[in-house]
Write a sequence for this structure.
């Protein structure tokens, strides 16, 4: 045991040191986690800047008020009067940032930025009062701003003659195809090259054109634009976040594989018509080795110059029409207010297209005071297209009791894809402004014939999404005509009538045929009776002629045609075709031949011969009648 | 005989026209009792008491009133109470009765837009919507009575022209009659198909709208059945059956299930038009 004593002391010291260190760390952490009770005063900074601060009358300028607060929240910002200027636009943004530090101390950084687009109305030194801010209940004040507004020189000076147009520098790049797509083959460089493209050669003014810069490279390096593309005459919006790494794809040009990066994709909205050229960008690329080490060599590449034909809007479209596809709606936060109170009238316009320069006007409204609108524009990218959302808030103060109407806003819109022109309209909103006693004086003259049921007596709240009708015919539920059995009956009548008419036609034809048959039958019976009379009168020639006529009449009835003109052979064929028995046909033909002979023979005048001829004819005609009856059955 | 055939045709024509006339005859009875209920509804609207107004409208509905103006006012009353699903149902019913009424169409479009906006604000995505068939949408602006009358008219023209075609010997007239009969037959068929589309003859079920704020689509007709998904107010689907107090429904994305009866309204219930 003793032998172990010399080593025990350093080990105990070591353990003590470890324990002290552990306690120290725990205390430190504990201390860090204890919430701070001390509250520091917020740091407030108020800035107001006019850019430019020297303008001429009628010129636009931007006036910005910025309130930055660290360690507190902004209760409100009191904006100064902007007399001497017309407010063309107002944007407000309020970013807030939270930071969590040690000792549970959270640091709040809040800002409120008001950006006014102003137009100078009169000359002189304009002093804009200091903006004020209330932060955590305490008042802070910025500094005033002075703006020098000079008279408009164009009113005094003679008009400036337009300078002659500069000659063209050769137009678009020769490597460009007919649709603005540059062929990479034509730009080929074995190491690196730039390709600039536009999605169309021809656009309407205000319509989106997409301009793309692509880098084709086989070497490693850091690209940097030494010259930005010249897009004068366009309003631009980046479609790719340039701070984010670009996607890489592979493409083979002239059999050589390249890595392709889309460096820029820009939505460009032409602001004027005519031929607009896009100057090429220049890119410098510092080459590096595979391990990221610099090789000291810098390559410079230039893109292609492009040109676009910007068409004016069609004749029927107003020049101030929005270009794109938008929806418009308007709403108020309340419709019933008292005199002196304010309401917010919000107009939201959104859709595909550019709304950066749009300021929605609101006309003077009697009994209402409309303050400068607050304009909030948000741009997003959807499917390679710029979508804008412009929210304009008008603060309206009621000054007189009544029921004024907020008129419908109407905006012309031209859709370049369909080339259709349309108008967007908001709904009309009726307000109900009452005085302190609660009375509302209608602004429109009262209708003398108005009944108590008339919609005019309904509160303005009912005007939201239409007004109640409060009238009806009290029409009762019923089956519609096609659902009634009568419809099916009516539907059946035409085909039944049609079928009936067809049946009638067939019946009439059949009856006619029967009548004709009977007439023919009567005819040969008459002729046979005539033959009998001739026999009684011993008129042999008349007898044989009548017998022949009776047989022919009977055959006519069977065949439906005159048989007198037929040869014996034709008659034989026709009767066989009709289906008469062969023996009957033979006997008929023999009889007809015998009758022809008998008329000129002396022997045929004998009494018994005439009786036999009559008897044979009667027998033949009976058989023909039998055949007819069987056929008709 | 010719005179008899002519008189037969005239009788047939009058029979068809008479039946059309009978079909168009509208019973418009408005007795004092119904007027009193209507007045009650209007007074409630003026007073801003939309629940009472809807109760009065329900009384009118039970009494068999099917008037587009009443339906429209009822839809607006539901709108005031933020019952968008019911408002859509009553606007659709009003539109069915008065397809040319621009105000009803506008209110329906705005209500649908409001519903989408509300959905968007609540991050619930687009409402389910089963689009109308091509036939339904093309015949939506034509009343069923008119469709029926047109069907009969074209049928009559078709058969008369075919009959004359058979009877006539004049070649030019026969060509003209052949064209007339062909076109009138096509139009007759189109009207019939249009009527079928309007009356949902070809539909698998009845179109319906969810009127509850939300409902659970269940696997079976039982409250204890497994819930498949949430259906929200304003969603549209087809009711294809009914079992034990539940409607069997088919959603536009082909999902099927059961919903409680009270949670939905069928757009065009029988005998309400």
């Amino acid at each position: 045991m003793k032998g172990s004593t010399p080593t025990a002391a350093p080990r105990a010291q070591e353990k003590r040191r470890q324990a002290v260190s552990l306690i120290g760390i725990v205390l430190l952490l504990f201390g860090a986690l204890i919430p701070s009770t001390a509250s520091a005063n917020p740091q407030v900074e108020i800035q107001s800047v006019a850019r430019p601060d020297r303008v001429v009358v009628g010129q636009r300028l931007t006036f910005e008020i910025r309130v930055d607060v660290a360690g507190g929240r902004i209760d409100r910002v009191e904006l100064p009067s902007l007399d001497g200027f017309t407010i063309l636009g107002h944007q407000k943004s309020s970013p807030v940032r939270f930071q969590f530090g040690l000792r549970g101390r959270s640091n709040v950084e809040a800002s409120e930025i008001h950006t006014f687009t102003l137009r100078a109305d009169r000359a002189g030194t304009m002093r804009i009062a200091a903006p004020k801010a209330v932060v955590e209940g305490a008042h802070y004040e910025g500094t005033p701003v002075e703006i020098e507004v000079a008279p408009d020189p164009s009113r005094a000076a003679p008009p400036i003659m337009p300078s002659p147009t500069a000659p063209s520098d050769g137009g678009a790049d020769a490597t460009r195809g007919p649709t603005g797509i540059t062929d990479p083959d034509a730009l080929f460089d074995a190491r690196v090259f730039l390709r600039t493209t536009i999605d169309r050669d021809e656009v309407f003014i205000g319509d989106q054109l997409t301009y793309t810069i692509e880098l084709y490279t086989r070497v490693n390096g850091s690209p940097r634009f030494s010259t930005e593309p010249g897009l004068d005459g366009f309003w631009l919006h980046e479609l790719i976040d340039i701070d984010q790494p670009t996607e890489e794809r592979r493409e083979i040009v002239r059999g050589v594989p390249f890595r392709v990066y889309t460096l820029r994709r820009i939505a460009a909205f032409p602001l004027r018509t005519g031929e607009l050229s896009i100057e090429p960008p220049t890119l410098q690329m510092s080459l590096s080795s595979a391990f990221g080490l610099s090789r000291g060599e810098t390559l410079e590449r230039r893109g292609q110059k492009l040109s676009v034909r910007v068409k004016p809007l069609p004749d029927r479209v107003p020049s101030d029409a929005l270009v794109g596809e938008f929806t418009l709606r308007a709403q108020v936060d309340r419709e019933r207010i008292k005199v002196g109170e304010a309401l917010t009238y919000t107009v939201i316009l959104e859709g595909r297209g550019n709304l950066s320069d749009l300021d929605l006007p609101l006309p003077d409204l009697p009994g209402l005071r409309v303050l400068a609108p607050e304009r909030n524009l948000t741009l997003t990218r959807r499917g390679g297209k710029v979508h804008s959302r412009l929210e304009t808030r008008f603060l309206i103060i009621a000054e007189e009791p009544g029921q004024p109407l907020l008129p419908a806003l109407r905006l012309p819109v031209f859709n370049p894809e369909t080339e259709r022109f349309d108008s967007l309209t908001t709904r009309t909103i009726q307000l109900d402004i009452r005085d302190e006693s609660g009375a509302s004086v209608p602004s429109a003259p009262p209708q003398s014939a108005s009944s108590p049921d008339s919609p005019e007596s309904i509160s303005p709240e009912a005007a939201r999404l239409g007004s109640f009708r409060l009238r009806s015919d009290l029409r009762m539920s019923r089956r519609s005509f096609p659902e009634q059995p009568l419809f099916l009956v009516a539907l059946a009548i035409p085909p039944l009538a049609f079928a009936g008419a067809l049946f009638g036609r067939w019946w009439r034809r059949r009856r006619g045929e029967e009548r004709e048959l009977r007439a023919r039958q009567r005819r040969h019976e008459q002729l046979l009776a005539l033959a009998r009379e001739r026999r009684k009168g011993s008129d042999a020639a008349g007898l044989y002629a009548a017998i022949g006529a009776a047989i022919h009449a009977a055959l006519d009835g069977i065949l439906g045609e005159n048989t007198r003109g037929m040869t014996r052979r034709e008659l034989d064929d026709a009767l066989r075709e009709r289906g008469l028995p062969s023996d009957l046909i033979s006997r008929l033909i023999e009889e007809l031949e015998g009758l022809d002979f008998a008329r000129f023979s002396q022997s045929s005048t004998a009494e018994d011969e005439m009786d036999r001829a009559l008897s044979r004819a009667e027998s033949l005609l009976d058989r023909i009648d039998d055949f007819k009856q069987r056929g008709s059955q | 005989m010719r005179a008899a055939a002519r008189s037969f045709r005239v009788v047939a024509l009058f029979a068809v026209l008479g039946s059309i006339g009978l079909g168009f005859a509208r019973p418009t009875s408005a007795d004092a009792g119904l007027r009193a209920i209507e007045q009650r509804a209007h007074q409630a609207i003026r007073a801003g008491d939309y629940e009472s107004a809807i109760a009065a409208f329900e009384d009118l509905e039970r009494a068999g009133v099917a008037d587009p103006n009443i339906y429209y006012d009822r839809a607006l009353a539901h709108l005031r109470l933020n019952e968008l699903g019911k408002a859509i149902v009553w606007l659709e019913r009003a539109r069915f009765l008065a397809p040319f009424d621009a105000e009803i169409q506008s209110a329906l479009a705005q209500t649908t837009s409001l519903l989408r906006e509300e959905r968007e604000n609540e991050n619930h995505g687009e409402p389910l919507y089963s689009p109308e068939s091509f036939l339904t949408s093309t015949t939506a602006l034509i009343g069923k009575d008119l469709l029926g009358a047109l069907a009969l008219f074209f049928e009559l023209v078709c058969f008369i022209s075919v009959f004359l075609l058979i009877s006539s010997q004049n070649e030019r007239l026969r060509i003209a009659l052949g064209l007339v009969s062909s076109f009138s037959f096509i139009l007759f068929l189109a009207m019939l198909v249009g009527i079928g589309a309007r009356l949902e003859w070809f539909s698998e079920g009845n179109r319906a709208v969810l009127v509850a704020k939300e409902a659970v689509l269940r696997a079976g007709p039982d409250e204890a059945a497994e819930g498949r998904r949430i259906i929200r107010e304003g969603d549209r689907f087809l009711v294809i059956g009914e079992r034990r107090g539940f409607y069997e429904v088919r959603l536009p994305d082909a999902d099927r299930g059961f919903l409680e009866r009270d949670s939905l309204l069928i757009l065009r219930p029988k005998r309400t038009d």
